[in-house]
Design a protein that fits this description.
heterodimer, A: 415 residues, alpha/beta, 7-stranded mixed β-sheet, 4-stranded antiparallel β-sheet, 17 strands, globular, disordered N terminus, B: 130 residues, alpha+beta, 3-stranded antiparallel β-sheet, 18% strand
């Protein structure tokens, strides 16, 4: 038997904050193991978004009246919280977007396609990126003639760092990498990756969608020139994302959306942009979403990111040990939880991942199955699909036990 | 057994584990392939017609979940001896009746993949709403 794991968070108290975790699915306790897709929301976040609409709904930045003042104060207050959360030097380095996807598209479009990238310039990515950190760069290749290169992974799911060194050259202008893989859970050595990128004069773009919810991030320490993440994976609302950029990188980036808010002045046929970050926030933003994300950041900060990380390491260790004892089950990605976030992708012999998910669903267990928007990585491992369980602050060892019991049930059905 | 285990009834598992008419069919008259972009399920269908335009043999190849592959296997058992007009008349209701399981919207796509491939083999556009 595995040694009893030390769980550092008070999970019963946390669960009580999440209204959805009180419901049942087909008379079974809801076991939610799909937080890498989207996290559940605590009542504090739900109440904060609802409060905005019930008490001080107004558009931000230009209203002269009290409601507008309050809305602007809360919206900008959220920006300050997020800046502090990732160690940015100033709230002006934080742009509100709708998602990680939009943030990455702003960089690819504004810095790549409309900005500095010329024909023959090289962009280095990795095979483990989510589609949202692949496809925007395809646009830069297709429209500017940029050359895309990819760092492969070792069989254990870590990046081939010596290959990365070989790919870098004076032609490299952008290196783009996930801080944490959404399939393998691999935590990539981004500090080292950024350092080597800077040595050849390239910038480093970091997709932190899977990292920001689960571990302490310091953009200065990482050396990120841009960093993107989403609110909905970190207890916040859907439809709100973040783009961080250094002042130099942001100034070198053209806006993606033209419209209100993002301008300094407009004349017929021409306009001048507003200052960073507002030049990237054309149109009325997701005000309630930003405020809700600010409260989600408060919630995570109160739990402590180091405690969250330790909690997830314990659960992941327990899961890897229990799943490792099942015959006919394969897990993917690092086995060392110090190199891995709380994401466990697996396959079961003779059972397709969709069938695994269907059977677990009967037991009230929510997991993901498919290619996880990472088809190049699936091809690398020659897999059509995997099943994936992912853990967060409201999960405990009982949830892992339920998962493993469900996996045994799958094996019975497909024996 | 609770409702969703109905999905994996004996006949489904039987066709998944012991697929009928699986493999290549050299000299097939009609061939088509399609995949489900959501999950990567893949079905290839081969139909051989005789001189009087009747299905003399049928085979499928593919990979994917139990529902998609059992559905393809079951579909092949419904086609032998059919004329072209009978082949065109094989529809969603007929296949779902043969499957005999309750299906959610997402799993319906798995179940109907083989029928889409038959439509493609017949040169008809696939019905995305089906």
């Amino acid at each position: 038997m595995a040694k009893p794991a030390r769980v550092l968070l008070n999970v019963p108290a946390i669960k009580a904050d999440f209204p959805i975790l009180q419901r049942k699915v087909r008379d079974k306790r809801l076991v939610y193991l799909d937080s890498a897709a989207t996290s559940q929301k605590p009542k504090q976040v739900i109440d904060a978004t609802s409060d905005f609409y019930s008490r001080y709904n107004a558009n931000v930045h230009r209203a002269i009246y009290e409601l507008g003042e309050e809305a602007t104060r809360e919206y900008e207050g959220a920006r300050e919280k997020i800046a502090a959360f990732i160690g940015a030097k100033s709230p002006n380095e934080i742009v509100f977007t709708k998602s990680t996807t939009e943030s990455l598209n702003i960089i690819a479009y504004g810095y790549g396609l409309k900005g500095k990238i010329q024909k023959g310039d090289e962009i280095v990515g990795t095979v483990m990126e989510h589609h949202s950190n692949h496809v925007p760069w395809h646009f830069v290749k297709d429209h500017k003639g940029a050359v895309l290169k990819y760092v492969d992974v070792n069989d254990d799911g870590t990046l081939k760092m010596e290959q990365y060194d070989d790919l870098l050259s004076k032609r490299t202008k952008i290196v783009t990498v996930a801080l944490c893989s959404n399939v393998l859970g691999t935590i990539n050595p981004v500090k080292e990756i950024a350092k080597r990128a800077h040595e050849v004069g390239a910038i480093c773009v970091v997709d932190a969608a899977q990292a920001a919810p689960h571990m302490s991030i310091d953009v200065q320490g990482l050396g990120a020139d841009f960093l993107a993440f989403s609110g909905h994976k970190m207890l916040g609302p859907t439809g709100i994302g973040v783009l961080y950029g250094t002042p130099v990188s942001m100034e070198a980036t053209e806006p993606l959306l033209g419209g209100g808010e993002m301008i300094r002045e407009v004349h017929l046929g021409r306009a001048a942009w507003n200052d960073v970050p507002y030049k990237f926030e054309g149109g009325t933003p997701n005000i309630a979403g930003a405020i809700g994300l600010g409260v989600a950041v408060d919630y995570l900060t109160r739990l402590g990111l180091d405690a969250i990380r330790a909690h997830e390491m314990e659960i992941t260790q327990y899961a890897l040990e229990k799943i490792g004892r099942l015959k006919g089950v394969t897990t993917y990605g690092p086995k060392d939880v110090t190199k891995k976030a709380g994401v466990v992708s697996f396959t079961i012999d003779n059972a397709h991942p969709h069938d695994i998910a269907s059977i677990l669903d009967v037991e009230g267990i929510c997991i993901r199955s498919g290619h996880h928007c990472a088809q190049p990585l699936m091809e690398r491992f020659d897999l059509p699909a995997t099943a994936r369980a992912s853990f967060y602050v409201y999960n405990d060892l009982e949830d892992v036990d339920a998962l493993v019991a469900g996996m045994r049930r799958v094996q019975e059905v497909f024996a | 057994m609770s409702a969703a285990y109905d999905l994996y009834q004996e006949q489904i598992l039987d066709h998944y584990k012991r697929p009928r008419n699986k493999g290549p069919l050299p000299g097939a008259t009609l061939n088509a392939r399609d995949s489900n972009p959501l999950c990567g399920d893949e079905v290839v269908l081969h139909v051989k017609l005789n001189g009087s335009e009747q299905v003399s043999d049928v085979r499928f190849e593919g990979q994917g979940c139990a529902i998609s592959q059992a559905s393809a296997s079951m579909l092949t058992t419904m086609l032998k001896g059919l004329t072209m007009s009978e082949l065109r008349a094989v529809n969603r209701e007929a296949l779902l009746k043969r499957l005999g399981i309750p299906l959610s919207a997402v799993r319906l796509k798995c179940a109907l993949l083989s029928l889409h491939v038959l439509r493609l083999a017949l040169g008809e556009p696939k019905d995305l709403r089906a």
